[in-house]
Design brief:
106 residues; mainly beta; Thrombin, subunit H; 11 strands; 0% helix; 57% strand
Length: 106
């Protein structure tokens, strides 16, 4: 698994980077703004314009969770290098989620 591309209206296409072959499409009813793949390649996090982050399992394509807490559109998502934390940001602030806990924005 190498790269992915957020499609604003429908979901995320996942491609094998060496062949550019599409390997999966993660469909979403929500409009998407940003995407990140975990360091181990098992998870995809997607920021949404409806103030949420969606977390998918790459292998199965299953939606694992929809994370809430932002008061505005989520415009950025990123995994920590060890994959234990997921940061999500909106215009002007951010939230961190790791081990099932959220920290206040600052």
């Amino acid at each position: 698994m190498g790269t992915c591309w957020p499609w604003p209206q429908r979901g995320v296409y996942l491609y094998e980077i060496t062949t550019f072959r599409q390997v999966r499409f993660l469909e979403s009813e929500d409009r998407l703004s940003s995407v990140a793949i975990s360091p181990d390649g098992r998870l995809v996090a997607v920021g949404c314009w409806v103030n949420t982050v969606k977390l998918w399992e790459v292998e199965s394509g299953r939606l694992l969770d929809t994370l809430t807490g932002h008061s505005e559109a989520v415009v950025s998502v990123a995994f920590s290098p060890d994959g234990r934390l997921l940061a999500s940001g909106r215009l002007g602030s951010g939230r961190f989620r790791g081990d099932g806990k959220c920290a206040p924005s600052w």
